[in-house]
Specification:
By secondary structure, the chain is α/β, with parallel strands linked by helices. The chain contains 16 helices and twelve strands. A hairpin with a 6-residue loop joins strand 1 and strand 2. Helix 4 runs antiparallel to helix 5, helix 6 packs antiparallel against helix 7 and helix 14 packs antiparallel against helix 15.
């Protein structure tokens, strides 16, 4: 089956790219353009016609990539045409008439590239992350994974375990023969070394996932302290309703922001107070849960909130910043209970000291999550397979020491398989489907 799709963004644009891949690609080019056939990998100006009528649709650049030297490994072509909706629809409609051609599913071009061995699964995921990147740090992380450093490390561990497995199987196959002492010794040393390296990688504070998905910041505090106003200020738009009526915010309101290159997801939450209103009580419960799950809490109070110390004790921690809003009304009555948390005195009304608050947010995130060049894990899928690998290596160690070599070998095979599944040595179609469905259509 030959697939086709608009690969550039939807909407009106100067140039639109329509991508085609599959065995009918050459036939499509011959049917909607006029001779001569374009040279491989050479931009050619072509008139593009409607099938069966030869009515001109547009004039644009055609790129022809014969298999296997293409992104997908199949015959492939790209039409670079004017980006009007009418032009795009006319070309797609003409291609759809040709037998054995259909619209591509999300990520299908990249999925075919993976299945044809053009890229591994980690690179496929990093391509998706690069397309979705909104901040500089997300772009840098995607590029690092694309470079293949992570794949090399995972493959290195896998090859090391396969070598150990071959020695264990030799012990099973030739029980009556003595293997060299250094081989027996190296089975234990090398398996422990790989397990130790994987455990060190797992102990990474989930920085890779946080960069990819965004650091979670929760704005929490009592009612009418200015939480929604702070969210609106950080967003530079009215995301949340601001009112002098206490308890206006009852649900969690989220917005994705870029703070000095750091991707963050900021949540405005319901004001925390004693309430008999069932809906407000649910909102308060959600606020406390969001604060518990957040990477950073901005606890917003005002001078009148000085009696709210029980709430503060529960929320102030290493992952919190205390901000006293409405400081223009006077901060003389702020008690030592508050001052010992080194609060930042701000005024959202007068936009006072908000730059200090933003600096504190950036510093807190960067100090709390040390961003390293050695990030290997960027998705929960990777983490789960590594955790399973460590678990199987621990079982292998116990069975190997008790000389239950048959079962020890099986644990080693499972550990190896989990490493293989990270880079794409998989045989489960459902896993591939869940990954490539996150792609945009045309990629």
């Amino acid at each position: 089956m030959t697939i086709y799709a608009l690969s550039s963004g939807p909407g009106i644009s100067g140039v639109a790219v329509i991508r085609i891949s599959g065995p009918e690609t050459k036939k499509i080019i011959e049917k909607i353009t006029v001779d001569p056939f374009p040279k491989a990998r050479e931009a050619t100006l072509k008139k593009i016609n409607k099938i069966n009528t030869n009515e001109l649709i547009d004039e644009g650049i055609l790129l022809w990539f014969p298999a296997p030297q293409s992104y997908t490994g199949e015959d492939m072509a790209e039409f670079h045409v004017h980006g009007s909706r009418a032009v795009i629809e006319a070309i797609l409609r003409s291609i759809s008439i040709i037998e054995n051609c259909r619209l591509a599913e999300p990520g299908e071009f990249t999925k075919i590239a993976f299945q044809n061995g053009k890229i591994n699964l980690l690179k496929a995921e990093s391509i998706s992350d690069l397309i979705s990147s909104e901040t500089e740090i997300q772009r840098q992380q995607a590029i690092k994974i694309m470079s293949g450093k992570s794949s090399e490390k995972f493959n290195s561990w896998r090859e090391g375990l396969l070598k150990i497995l071959s020695n264990v199987e030799a012990k099973i196959d030739f029980p009556d023969e003595d293997l060299p002492e250094d081989i027996i010794k190296n089975i234990k040393i090398n398996s422990e070394k790989i397990k130790s390296e994987i455990m060190k990688t797992l102990n990474d504070q989930k920085v890779g996932e946080r960069i990819r998905e965004g650091f979670k910041i929760a704005i929490v505090g009592p009612t009418n302290a200015g939480k929604s106003s702070l969210l609106n200020y950080l967003s530079r738009r009215e995301v949340a309703i601001v009112s002098e009526i206490a308890g206006t915010t009852r649900d969690v309101i989220e917005t994705h922001l870029n703070i000095d290159g750091l991707p963050v997801v900021v949540s405005d939450t319901a004001g925390i107070r004693e309430s008999k209103d069932e809906i407000e009580k649910k909102g308060i419960k959600l606020a406390l849960k969001r604060a518990e799950d957040a990477d950073l809490n901005i606890v917003v109070i005002e001078p009148k909130s000085v009696h709210f110390t029980d709430f503060l004790r529960d929320l102030i921690s290493e992952k919190s910043i205390l901000a006293v809003n409405k400081s223009d009304l006077g901060i003389e009555n702020i008690s030592y209970e508050f001052k010992k948390y080194n609060p930042i005195y701000i005024s959202l009304k007068n936009e006072k000291n908000l730059d200090q608050l933003i600096t504190a947010i950036k510093k807190k995130l960067k100090n709390q999550f040390i961003i390293s060049d050695d990030i290997l894990i960027t998705r929960e899928r990777h983490r789960q397979h590594l955790e399973q690998c460590v678990s199987n290596l621990e079982k292998f160690k116990n069975k190997n020491e008790s000389e239950d070599f048959d079962k020890a070998a099986e644990d080693l095979r499972l550990a190896t398989r989990h490493l293989g599944m990270i880079v794409g040595k998989v045989d489960v179609e459902e896993v591939l489907g869940s990954i490539f469905n996150d792609f945009c259509i045309g990629k």
